[in-house]
Design brief:
Number of helices: 13
Order of helices and strands: HHHHHHHHHHHHH
Structural class: mainly alpha
Strand content: under 5%
Largest sheet: none
Number of strands: 0
Helix content: over 70%
Radius of gyration: 24 Å
Length: 310
């Protein structure tokens, strides 16, 4: 009985402290640059171990990709270009997976009560905390990953040079392959068929960028919703959602409808519709992640307390 009473008092004290903190932050300006920079410094210091582990894991993963390409079939001069192409493609896939892992990290640590308490006690408004987490995981971490990629690329250059087959750096090839092409718009062409080849180049470019951003924003939403193991759970949710969407479209929309739509609608209209859908997904994901973050509590209620308690 005493133990239950002590736990109840502790829960009440923690809730009151978090409530008072939120009331204090309520009278702050929504965004102040000096306060934001101080909050970023404190938040990065609290998560530095996670970031170090992620950078180390990225280094090991990219190194294994390079080791997998060190085959004897690339050890003659005529195969150098093929080696560069193979290594560049594999590093692009690995680097994009790493970026998606980074996008699933903004609120993953908040699955622990102590981390939620530390996050709530940061001297900043809710908007500053939200923007700070997005900058850390979607801007700073990918930039650090580029440095890791360049370091791994330098090591593979040294190894290939010692083996007598100098190949040069492929970091620029990897980044050039990941960044959207102004004249191609590959993802937009895949989604809209060949119509993206006849629409304005800037529109296809915008569609490709928004498709990348909407995918990353979905992982941000997953980090706020799932928190624990958010990358795996969000990836599974994307697979299930995509499978059901394709199944629904194939059942409800016969091929005749697709053919008629392709003839009646202009290429620019189809790519514009894709842009609008991506903007809606991006807006909903970022807004949903912010709402989930602001409604977070230090002591999360259990499922019975949420749905069964009257």
């Amino acid at each position: 009985m005493r133990r239950r009473h002590a736990v109840a008092i502790d829960r009440k004290c923690v809730t009151c402290a978090a409530h008072d903190t939120n009331l204090t932050f309520l009278y702050m300006k929504s965004f102040d640059l000096h306060r934001f920079l101080n909050m970023m410094r404190l938040d990065i210091a609290q998560r530095i171990k996670t970031y170090r582990s992620l950078l180390l894991g990225a280094f090991v993963g990219l190194s294994f990709v390079c080791i997998g390409c060190l085959s004897d079939r690339f050890m003659y001069p005529d195969a150098r270009q093929f080696y560069r192409f193979t290594l560049s493609e594999m590093l692009q896939v690995a680097f994009w997976l790493i970026v998606m892992v980074c996008a699933s990290l903004p609120f993953q640590d908040l699955a622990i009560k102590q981390q939620r308490m530390n996050f709530m006690m940061l001297p900043a408004s809710q908007m500053e905390k939200y923007v700070g987490r997005l900058l850390q995981t979607l801007v700073l971490l990918p930039l650090c990953m580029v440095v890791v990629l360049a370091f791994v690329d330098t090591l593979q250059c040294v190894v290939m040079w010692l083996r007598g087959v100098p190949t040069g750096w492929v970091t620029l090839d990897v980044l050039r392959g990941m960044l959207p092409s102004l004249s191609i718009g590959q993802e937009a062409r895949i989604m809209c068929g060949e119509v993206a080849d006849t629409c304005p180049a800037w529109l296809a470019y915008m569609a490709e960028i928004l498709m990348h951003l909407s995918l990353l924003s979905f992982y941000v939403l997953g980090s706020a919703w799932f928190r624990k193991h958010s990358f795996i759970k969000t990836s599974m949710a994307l697979v299930v959602l995509g499978f059901n969407l394709v199944l629904l479209l194939n059942v409800q929309w016969p091929s005749v409808v697709y053919t008629a739509l392709g003839y009646l609608a202009s290429p620019t209209a189809l790519v514009t519709a894709l842009v609008v859908v991506c903007v809606l997904v991006l807006t909903f994901s970022l807004w949903g992640a912010y709402r989930l973050m602001t409604r977070m509590q230090v002591i999360e209620p259990s499922l019975s307390e949420k749905y069964l308690k009257r």
